[in-house]
Amino acid sequence: MIELRSDTFTTPTADMLAAMASATQGDDVYGEDPTVRELEELAAHTLGKDAGCLMPSGTMANLACLMAHAPRGTKVLVGRESDIYIYEAGGASVCGGLVYEPIDNQPDGTLRIADLVEGCPKDPEDPQFALPAVVCVENTQNRCGGRILSAEHLADVRAFADDRGLRLHLDGARLFNAAAGSGRTPAEIAAPADSVQFCLSKGLSAPIGSMVVGDRELVAKARRIRKMLGGGMRQAGFIAAAGIVAIKTADRLVEDHANARRLAIGLADIPGVEIDPEVVETNICMFRVTAPGWTLPAFFAAAREHGLALAELGHGRARAVTHRGVGARDIDDAVDIVAKVLASGKGVA
After folding, report:
1. Which residues are CB-neighbours of 101 under 8 A, at least 6 positions away?
2. Which of 206, 309, 324, 327 is the right S-S partner for 242, CB 3.0 to 4.6 Å?
3. For residue 213, which of 39, 84, 90 has the smallest C-alpha distance?
4. Distance between CA 113 and CA 130 in Å, rounded?
5. Cα(319)–Cα(329) distance, rounded to whole angstroms?
6. Cα angle 6-10-11, degrees, rounded to a multiple of 5
7. How far apart are CA 221 and CA 62, in angstroms?
8. Residue 111 in 3-state DSSP?
């Protein structure tokens, strides 16, 4: 199976497995797992922050940051197309007592400053309105096609947050893809944010885990919230060892980006596929099936029968995500499968 549904299907490399097998263990809840401490220090240093905390998942990492930043009853300004708003089970409301204020994402993933302003009450003294406490941005922006937020946009959002006295959280699940695709360092991308979450188990290929980084006060709060949410781990050095290798080998992500571009160019030549290769910036390709008579479920089922796994990601679009487990030959085979499926006409009612 050519697996293009997500980069979460990556499996640990031989180097990761070797590091996991030889990792020194301790009790992380006591702060005594040396491999976890090494990972947390590496993550903080790589992103130019003071401290880090290993989390079981990106969902918990984002939630812990929002709860650390925002008192109950305050608002989170978040993109309408963001993972936090759509895919994280409303945790900020359920667990944190926070109110989501969805802000329309532009096609390139950005949030217009004017729209952020509209998300704030005109009179902060009016007790009828919940007050905003934190702004969230997502880089890369998944549902907008893996788009990279520019340094200028992040600076504008930071200035808006400072003007309003708000905190800025960066959901950087694929932050290292943003770095590889922009030529900026992870630290440069993370610099405007008060807190950052990034995933170890997507394109970085570790089996489990995400990181929270920020200043020491923020990370201490997030660590306490992690425990409250049930995320405290004991001998977590096995997980951390793979994460260390993942961060140190992140520069290979450029291969995934090249394969995504190769896929987009190939799909663009197939009748019945709508895609703009020019907007494919990282490892995510979004496309539409416009061939007459085909529904997305029928197309996905037919593609799977030929050995290609794809997924839907809202608004009637298919998503293909490249990763370590997919090579250039797989990409060429995937293009051939899509062409063969659509040419078959079997989706026509």
Report:
1. 75, 76, 77, 78, 119, 132
2. 206
3. 39
4. 19
5. 19
6. 155
7. 13
8. strand
The per-residue pLDDT for range 129-149, each reduced to its tens digit, is 999 999 999 999 999 999 999
- Residue identified by tokens 């370590």 is 324
Statement to judge: residues 186 and 279 lie in one domain: no
What size, in residues, is the chain?
A: 349
Instruction: Please calculate the CA angle 258-142-64 and round it to the nearest 5 degrees.
Output: 125
Contact 9, 323 (CB under 8 A): yes
308: domain CATH number? 3.90.1150.10
The pLDDT tens digits of the residues spanning 272-331 come to: 999 999 999 999 999 999 999 999 999 999 999 999 999 999 889 999 999 999 999 999
Identify whether residues 72 and 95 lie together within a single domain.
yes
Q: State which amino acid sits at residue 12.
A: P
Q: What is the pTM of this model?
A: 0.96
**Domain, as residue range, for 326:** 252-344
**Domain end residue (candidates: 233, 248, 263):** 248
Pair of tokens at residue 257:
């980006």
